[in-house]
Amino acid sequence: RGSTLLRVQDAKWQTKVMTMSQKPITISIIAPMYGVENYIVEYAESVFSQSYPHIEFIFVNDGTKDRSVELLEELIERKYAHLKPQIKIINKENGGLPAARRTGLDHATGDYIYHNDSDDWISEGSIEKIVRKIKETDADIIYFNYVKEYPTRSSIKREREYRADQQRDYVRNMYNHHSFGTLCNKCVRRSIYKENEIYSPKYGYAEDCFVSTQLVGYSSSLAYLDENIYHYRKGNPNALTGQQRRKRKREYALNFLALYEKYRDVPVEKNPVAVIFDDILIQAGWYSIFYRLDLFKEYSWLAAAVRKAKMRMGTDVWLLSQLITKIYCLFK
């Protein structure tokens, strides 16, 4: 009788495991909207027409003043009414891209999160390819290539391939622009967001790299999908890349100094971004000198921290510039 009970319990457990393994993987695509009335229909068509059926579509209206929402709703009614149960349109006051992405996350229920910009588009069959890679690897993060789309040409941006356990290398290379810090070329397990406090930056410039370094740092495994999934439109006058160079450098430095402050007291073994601490400090010091940003006045501790930071090859700041920064800080 006891052995029969064990066999019944074992059969129930196997059935449960099989049911869990057969449960479809769901993907939440999050797309903020602001000033994209010229692009929203093309973007929405690209995601609504995906062959993979288990997608949650989340559009965050970040207080746009144009017809973006109206055009999206018209498209849904005209062509994609059958997807209404899977579509969420969330309205909020304008708060910038990081806040809009966070709002989308708060409403997401999928197993994986994929952030898009609603003035771009994704390739046909992309989500099915991503899900296939998830099933093959069970990786926390699937990352892939993307395509820069200029008015008259396209440029494929192929990502480096990392081993499943090379998170630290990926984090360093993202920060130093040897790999892509974008969120649009990463599909991330939602539990990483839920189980860790993923900070959002104050400023919009490089906000994706700010978040990506944390996500990769907290992940347990990576998997590279050698496919051109995402199409990034260049030339949108509302894009952040149109800002002045000095302002962008300041925002970049301020964002990552804030990231440093968030994690500087976290033990290295639990710290997702400790590997870039020295790079953050020296770069902020160099930007302050070269672009006259006065960061040493804003951060009284910065000069002392730069003096302790290690110089390294392979960063965005040349070794000679690193040395100049270190010498400069000796007199601060």
What does this structure look like?
By secondary structure, the chain is of the alpha/beta class. Helix content is 45%, strand content 17%. It contains 13 helices and 9 strands. The protein has helices at 2-22, 40-48, 68-79, 97-107, 126-137, 167-175, 190-195, 207-218, 245-263, 277-290, 295-298, 302-308, 319-330, and strands at 27-33, 55-62, 87-92, 112-115, 121-122, 141-149, 154-157, 186-189, 222-233. Strands 1, 2, 3, 4, 5, 6, 7, 8 and 9 form a 9-stranded mixed sheet that branches.
Number of separate strands: 9
How many helices? The count is 13
- Globular, elongated, flat, extended or rod-shaped: what is the shape? globular
What distance separates the N and C termini?
81 Å
Strand content: 15-25%
Write down the overall mean pLDDT: 92
Radius of gyration: 22 Å
Largest sheet composition: 9 strands, mixed
Helix and strand content put the structural class at alpha/beta
**Helical percentage:** 40-55%
The helix/strand order is HEHEHEHEEHEEHEHHEHHHHH
Low-confidence stretches: 11-20, 239-243
